[in-house]
Automatic annotation (TrEMBL), chain B:
<feature type="transmembrane region" description="Helical">
    <location>
        <begin position="114"/>
        <end position="134"/>
    </location>
</feature>
<keyword id="KW-0472">Membrane</keyword>
<keyword id="KW-0812">Transmembrane</keyword>
<feature type="transmembrane region" description="Helical">
    <location>
        <begin position="62"/>
        <end position="80"/>
    </location>
</feature>
<protein>
    <submittedName>
        <fullName>ABC transporter permease</fullName>
    </submittedName>
</protein>
<dbReference type="InterPro" id="IPR001851">
    <property type="entry name" value="ABC_transp_permease"/>
</dbReference>
<feature type="transmembrane region" description="Helical">
    <location>
        <begin position="197"/>
        <end position="215"/>
    </location>
</feature>
<feature type="transmembrane region" description="Helical">
    <location>
        <begin position="244"/>
        <end position="261"/>
    </location>
</feature>
<keyword id="KW-1003">Cell membrane</keyword>
<feature type="transmembrane region" description="Helical">
    <location>
        <begin position="323"/>
        <end position="345"/>
    </location>
</feature>
<feature type="transmembrane region" description="Helical">
    <location>
        <begin position="16"/>
        <end position="42"/>
    </location>
</feature>
<dbReference type="Pfam" id="PF02653">
    <property type="entry name" value="BPD_transp_2"/>
</dbReference>
<keyword id="KW-1133">Transmembrane helix</keyword>
<dbReference type="GO" id="GO:0005886">
    <property type="term" value="C:plasma membrane"/>
</dbReference>
<dbReference type="GO" id="GO:0022857">
    <property type="term" value="F:transmembrane transporter activity"/>
</dbReference>
<feature type="transmembrane region" description="Helical">
    <location>
        <begin position="281"/>
        <end position="311"/>
    </location>
</feature>
<feature type="transmembrane region" description="Helical">
    <location>
        <begin position="92"/>
        <end position="108"/>
    </location>
</feature>
Length: 314, 355
């Protein structure tokens, strides 16, 4: 028992929590933007894969790391645009379109990877983002390793929480995005374009999701391999409900999740002899379901989520 | 300015052609990745065709591949009709397979007349219970079944791995995490000499027929469709909406579970954690291609299986990545979405009016 309490006292535990949370922060913020505008984006899992693959591949082909990040965001935006066209002007089922995008994006990324690298036994590596090691600050006890020895992408994730919060809560654009997810008719009556707002939000949200994927291949690991996203996108869809579509709570949710995942890995080494390791591997998914069930009754979904809107029709 | 205008008087024939057009377009679009991979396009298509229709063996291989897809396609079609989004077919398939292995590797023994129904029943029950969880979380707590059924796929797969490394592990398996082989009396019979096609295919066809009759000819099918089309109205009309959800969940999960039984007791003979290359997810595509019609599911499964078997053969012959099959099949889903849209609506382009 003391051993378990000791885990919480190590800075490596808190550093790992933030590291594990980083891709989820991007993903939850992305899902938040889409859903606030009234569009469920189940393409998230595939967009993670695409971001992971394209960002890594750009760097592998010789581009700089930040160019890779940009490539990942743009390819995510492209798939987001595809989902947006299918669901917003065409008004097709958001569930089916999103799953279609996930399957399409995943298979396209896998096909591209395999075609570019037909026969590789071990996935080629890139030089990923390094820990920032900010002078003085990273020497601080506790805070140094936890905050100031993370990579730039973790900082970008934290920065995006602020950006999304500022846009949603402090700008007219944010008010319009939230309104378009709640009552598109009112937005239309104001002379704003429901279509443009929704498409824009889905494209921007999908770019964020792709950054979550890019984090995996360019910061957490240094290579792309099949199945590496492993449900992280779906977990974000659960977390955004848990976060009641608020950026601050999204950060909290992702951090809590990161903590449980980091704890799970450490418990596995502590109690590995007593319980099969798989029990711990299941925990993140089980926790996501529990989190969802706990908040489900109180969850105030954006009122026009899943509802297609056509001018002049109700 | 683009305007979406509903088409009037769309003939049923056109509507029925929608999936066919989508499938053909997706197959043609596959030429793009083929060119990108540097493969000669026409010989590649010829090889795909030969890979399915080249011999009796290749054709039965296609039917064998279609078998689990009919089950998972039906599972998705039945659930989606009620707008119960069961995305957990993959997990339910594994639960079904695990139950079949549990019952079929020596827990009980008897004649095939006892054993085969028993493994089928065990798999169906396990799969049904697998979907009962998300359905109950939905009806009791209002938790979105899309997310819960998806996340359960991961949990169940890890659980199966745990079982295969623990109590279900074959001590004769040379250290590989695999189950003991299913006893002969519990194996589904082969349908043809020296072919892998097995009784699961016949069961799948029968269930497609049953599902079609239930959905289109019974009160229960009517209720399912009513809930799917307008839940509020169905509730207002006094339909026990939650009971419909639970019933649909059990049926849908059972169908997906049977896919697992059919694979493990018809084809593989023992369970490994790579039993399914995503049959549960592909079943969703099959259901959408079939426009949720159980009879159409059979045809859609044959098409999807042809793409997979044909592309596998082409891939071996020409060195193009076999992900081409996944790519083509996922493009079929998007094509059928678009085709169904354009069958019911058209776009009218207008000059942007002032203001």
């Amino acid at each position: 028992m003391m051993d378990i309490l000791n885990i919480f006292l190590t800075d490596s535990f808190w550093a790992a929590s933030l590291r594990i949370a980083s891709p989820l922060i991007f993903g939850v913020l992305g899902a938040l933007l889409c859903e606030r505008a009234g569009v469920l984006n189940l393409g998230i899992e595939g967009i993670f894969v695409v971001g992971a693959m394209t960002g890594w591949m750009a760097v592998w082909m010789g581009a700089g790391l930040w160019t890779g990040v940009l490539v990942a965001a743009l390819s995510g935006a492209l798939f987001g645009l595809f989902h947006a066209i299918l669901t917003v002007p065409l008004g097709l089922s958001q569930h089916v379109s999103g799953l279609g995008i996930t399957l399409f994006a995943t298979s396209l990324a896998s096909f591209t990877y395999r075609t570019a690298l037909p026969q590789v036994s071990s996935p080629p590596r890139i030089e990923p983002f390094r820990a920032l090691d900010i002078p003085v600050l990273s020497e601080l006890p506790f805070l140094g390793p936890v905050l100031f020895q993370q990579t730039a992408l973790t900082w970008l994730a934290l920065l995006m929480v602020g950006v999304v919060w500022w846009v949603m809560d402090r700008t007219a654009l944010g008010v319009a995005i939230k309104a378009v997810g709640d009552s598109p008719d009112a937005v239309n009556a104001q002379g704003l374009s429901v279509m443009k707002l929704r498409i824009g939000a889905v494209v921007a949200g999908s770019a964020l999701m792709a950054l979550g994927g890019a984090f995996l291949t360019m910061s957490a690991f240094d290579a792309f391999f099949f199945g590496m996203v492993n449900g992280r996108g779906w977990i974000c869809i659960a977390l955004v409900i848990f976060a009641s579509w608020r950026p601050g709570k999204a950060l909290l949710g992702a951090l809590l999740f990161g903590m449980f995942d980091a704890l799970q890995v450490r418990l596995q080494t502590e109690a590995g002899a007593l319980v099969p390791g798989q029990v711990f591997l299941m925990m993140p998914y089980i926790l996501s379901i529990i989190a969802l069930v706990v908040v489900a009754r109180k969850a105030e979904y954006p009122r026009a989520l899943l509802v297609p809107w056509r001018k002049g029709q109700r | 300015m683009i305007e979406v205008v509903p088409r009037e008087n769309v003939s049923r024939r056109w509507q029925a052609l929608v999936p066919v057009i989508a499938a053909v377009v997706a197959l043609l679009l596959a030429a793009i990745p083929l060119v990108a991979a540097g493969a000669p396009v026409v010989p590649a298509y010829a090889q795909m065709f030969k890979g399915v229709f080249g011999s009796v063996f290749t054709f039965t291989e296609m039917l064998t591949r279609a078998t689990p897809l009919i089950f998972t396609g039906l599972a998705a079609a039945v659930a989606f009709r009620a707008k119960l989004w069961n995305i957990g077919g993959e997990g339910q398939l594994y639960l079904g397979a695990l139950a079949a292995v549990w019952v079929g590797t020596g827990l009980v023994d008897g004649s095939p007349w006892l054993m085969i129904p028993l493994v089928l029943l065990a798999g169906a029950v396990a799969g049904g219970l697998g979907m009962l969880v998300p359905a109950t979380l939905k009806t009791r707590f209002g938790a979105d079944e899309v997310v819960t059924s998806l996340l359960l796929n991961f949990i169940i797969l890890i659980f199966v791995q745990m079982m295969l490394e623990g109590p279900f592990k074959d001590p004769m398996g040379l250290g590989w995490p695999q189950s003991e082989p299913i006893i002969d009396n519990a194996m589904l019979p082969q349908l043809m000499d020296r072919m892998r096609l097995h009784g699961g295919f016949i069961i799948a066809l029968v269930l497609a027929l049953v599902a079609w009759v239930v959905m289109s000819r019974t009160v229960w099918g009517l209720k399912i469709r009513a809930v799917g089309e307008n839940r509020a109205a169905a509730r207002h009309a006094g339909l026990g909406v939650n009971r419909v959800y639970i019933g649909v969940a059990l049926a849908s999960g059972a169908l997906a579970g049977l896919a697992g039984v059919s694979e493990v007791a018809g084809l593989k003979g023992y369970l490994t954690s790579d039993l399914s290359p995503g049959f549960g997810y592909t079943g969703i595509i099959v259901a959408m291609l079939a426009r949720l019609n159980p009879a159409g599911v059979v045809l859609a499964a044959l098409y999807v299986a042809s793409v997979f078997v044909g592309a596998d053969s082409m891939s071996r012959a020409m060195g193009v990545s076999s992900f081409l099959a996944d790519l083509t099949v996922s493009m079929s889903l998007i094509c059928v979405l678009l085709a169904s849209f354009f069958a019911s609506y058209r776009l009218r382009f207008k000059r942007a009016a002032a203001a």
